[in-house]
Amino acid sequence: xxxxxxxxxxxxxxxxxxxxxxxxxxxxxxxxxxxxxxxxxxxxxxxxxxxxxxxxxxxxxxxxxxxxxxxxxxxxxxxxxxxxxxxxxxxxxxxxxxxxxxxxxxxxxxxxxxxxxxxxxxxxxxxxxxxxxxxxxxxxxxxxxxxxxxxxxxxxxxxxxxxxxxxxxxxxxxxxxxxxxxxxxxxxxxxxxxxxxxxxxx
Length: 202
Prior knowledge:
The chain is 79% helix and 2% strand. With 202 residues, the protein is an all-alpha fold. The protein has a two-stranded antiparallel ribbon. The longest helix is centred in the middle third of the chain and has 27 residues, at 105-131.
């Protein structure tokens, strides 16, 4: 077996051990000792791959998020992409609740920031294609940051079940809101009909 394959298998074992432990107790009550026993690896191996349990947790979240981002980037349709996001949230609702309860909302947002940034950037690229505008990197970055914040707040509402919308209604609301806000931002700050910008996003 190649070293890279062995490395991924070991990480997966530790990730499975962590997820299992988080179903039983808070993160701050979990020890490296119980994780390595469940994963059947030694302490030296754990610290070779991760600085601590929080590092392992971030790897778990990043792994699942990267899978989701790959699915999203293979989509050219807002609705299908959003369905993928909500499916992932529902699939990992317990894990996300454990993370929020253990390390707090701010830390969860920080860990997920890169994935939200990719999602927002993807949506912006589609918006640029559809509007045919060119926009400066500075203004695009600001608009992307605003979209990240909006996506995070909307998903948090869904995650915490603080809205009365059914799933399909919620998807349509987000689609209309994001499309309207992205289009409005690009039309306000961009310049119309610069073909090379549209080509770069295809």
